[in-house]
Each structure stands twice: as structure tokens, then as C-alpha cells.
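Re: your question from the hallway

Yes, I did run it. Sequences:
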Amino acid sequence: MIEWLYLVVQAAALAMGAWFFIETARSQRVGRRHFVGVGVLEALLLAQLAVSIAIVPGEAGGGKALFFSYLVTTLLVPVAGCFWGSIDRSRWGIGTVAASGLIVAALMLRIHQIWEFQIHV
Amino acid sequence: MSEPRRLADGFGRLIVLVYVVFAVSAGARALFQVATKFGEAPVSFTLSAIAAAIYLVAAVAIIKGAARLALLAVGVELVGVVAVGALSVAVPDLFPEPSVWSHFGSGYGYVPLVLPVAGLVYLLKRRAAA
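Structure:
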């Protein structure tokens, strides 16, 4: 993992979560600007995946299958959160998408741990 | 807005997302552990698998609007995380590797402890409103 890219992904996931929870408090429906926000996070996660495909197989340690299964799961979480949240007509529609941002941050933390302790040894 | 409000509407939607994520992640991890190294920590891995199954039941029950089953699953989950959490502190030898519910879910940021409480509050509020 490239450290700065990892930190950018974390910042984006947490920022998206915070922004969407503010939207939850303001009772906003899921709208176009939110999809743009999720799109930015997804683009960063795809960049993370591309970089990982380039550098992880060359590393010495094990746990690579675990690493990629976590990363692919992480890619799917905001998409699932978006589909599931956007069909809700209450404030918790965007609240659900906000939660997906926090879930991404937690999963990325775990992926980074796998990288540090199992792969990049 | 003439449709009746379902259990998976509103805050229930956020709860379902978290339950599904936990069912998938705890379930995949437990299946992997049971398949590859069950003998190392049989109690932990069995409990993790049970926890994953309960998360799945709770998610499906809320999606389907089965309020009583959802309440039962979330209740069992709360008892489970408190009991296993206490047991893991009292008899750590039983848990050479952590389960989802060990130390009240500390390995998962205590979400396993917060989740059933939030779920119970939500389900009981919805039941009182019905």
C-alpha cells in the first residue's frame, strides 16, 4: 500500500460519512450531489485496488487472498449502501449511505493492518 | 406517502446495512477459520459462526418485516455478546483466538455490543408505535 494514498482514502471515507450525517440531521433526501461524493470515494478505492494489484503480489508475506477479499468487499460497501439507502424516503436514506462511509474506513483500517503485519514484512 | 411504513424503513435501513455487513464479514471469517484451523480455538470459531448466523437472521427478519423474529434475534444477540464477553474475561483459556463477541466485541470497535442495543431500542419503539 502507498501510505499517502491509504490516508487519502481514509480521509475521503470519513469526510463522506461526516458530510452525509450532517445531511441526515438536515433531513436531506439522497440526491445527485451525494452520488458524486460516493463516486469520488469509489474512484479512490479503485485506485487503491489498481495500486494493490501492482505491488501486493511482489511482496514477501502471506495473507494476500485475505487482503484482496477485504478490498473487494470494501469496494462494494458504498455501492450497496447507495442502492439500499437511496430508496428510503426518510432522513435515514442518506444516513445509511453515511454509515457505509464509516464501514469503509473500518475495513480500510483492517486492510492496512493486514498489509503491515502480514504482507509487507 | 400512503404506503405503510415498513420495519426496514427509516433508521431500520441503517441497522439492516450494518447487520448485513457483519453477517458477511463475520460469516466469511468464521467459515474460513472453521475450515482451516478449527482445532486451534473451537469455542471461539463456533461462537463466531453462531453470531454471524444471528446477524443474518436479524437482517432478513427486519427486511421481511417479521417484527417478533427480529426482536428474538436481536435479544439473543444482546444476551450472547454480554455472556460471551463476560466469559472471555473470566475464562480467557477458552478463547485462544478471539470470537466476534469476545471482550464485548472489542476487536470490532464494540459495534457488536452497540448494535443489539440500538436494534432493541428501534424495534421496541416501532412496536410501541404500532
